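User: C-alpha cells for Histidine phosphatase family protein, please.
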Amino acid sequence: MDAESFQEPGTAQGEGGVSSARAEGGVAMDLIILVRHGQSVENALGAGLGPGSHGDALTDLGRRQAVSCGGWLRSLGLGRLTLHTSPARRARETARLLGLGVPETVSPALSERSWGRWFEGVSDRDSPDRLAEARRAAGRDPWDWRPEEGESLRDVRARVTAWLSERQGRGAVVGVTHGEALLAARAAVEVRWRAWPLPLPGGGSTHSPPNGAALLYPWTPGLAPTRRGFLPDPMAADGAWDSVRWQEREPGPGRESSGEPARGRLTGETFP
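Assistant: Done. Predicted C-alpha cells:
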C-alpha cells in the first residue's frame, strides 16, 4: 500500500482520529508506545497471514528482539506504566520477555487483522501468491476491502482507535501488537498527516514497523499527537531516548497555535 492510499481523504479528527481527554494545567504528558511482536516462526518462513499453521511461537531472533526492546523500554525511566498485549501467543510471549515488571492485560483490540477464510486450504507453496492477491485487492480499495469472514482495514482502525482513546490520561502505556494493526493505528493517530513512511536504518522505509520495533506517540492535553518517535531496531539501540528517531509535523501557515493539528510534512529529528 503506497503513501497516497494509506490516508483516508477528508477524515476529521473526530471521525477515527484520537485526541487527548486529559485536563489542562500542569498534567504530565501521556505516552503511547506500540511494539510489534518479535519475529515468529511464520515470519521467519515468509508464510502468509493465515491461521499460523507453522506455530505462533517466537524464533530465537524474535526472543532476542523482545528482550532488547524491554531493556530499552526500562532505560527510559517512564515511571507509572501499563502493559497491554494482543491475545496471540507471539505477542504475549513478547510482552512477557519485555520484563517490565508490571502485569500484562490481554486486549483483543490489539489483535492482528482477521483474514477470515482467505488462506483456508492454501498450501505453503501457494501462500505467497494468495497474499499477493490480497495486496492487489486491498490496493484497489484499501479501506473497505474485506476478505470473506475477515476484517477490512477500516474495521481494524475502529477497534484500535477505541483502545487508544481509552488509554488517554493513563500515563505511559505499552501495547504489543501486529503489523496490520500498527498500520491501522497509524491511520488513527496520524489522521491529519500525510502517510509518510517510517525511515529504516541504512536507507529505505516502511509503513508497518519491523518485528521488535516500536512507535511512540507523546500526547499533550487536548491535542492529537504532533510528533512520532520510531525505534526501528531495539537490538541496535545505544541509549534510551537517543535511539529514537523523532519526526515532527510541520504546521501550515497560520496554524501554529490552532487547537487542531494541520496537514503538513514531517520534518527533522528532535528529542524530548
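User: Anything notable?

Assistant: The first strand starts at residue 30 and ends at 36.
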